[in-house]
Design goal:
The chain is mainly alpha-helical and 83 residues long. The chain contains five helices and two strands.
Length: 83
Amino acid sequence: SFEKETIPVARRKGVGIIAMKTLGAGTMLTKKVATVAECLRYTWSLPVATAIVGVDEIVHAEANAALARSAQPLAAWEMEELR
């Protein structure tokens, strides 16, 4: 998995990590596995330098920015639940 295999290698090599497909290409939302807030908090709880978050409307960008300003890392149990 990206989290278990790729991230540790990148960190050992001192390479910055860019998170993409932070909503699972929409699958997480359409299958109602997680909310946008949960997906983004999960991503921001990982050791990433940048997260690429695509949006269709300005209101989504504004909502994501508000989430980023108030985001707190997920607890270990919350991370495990989303995995």
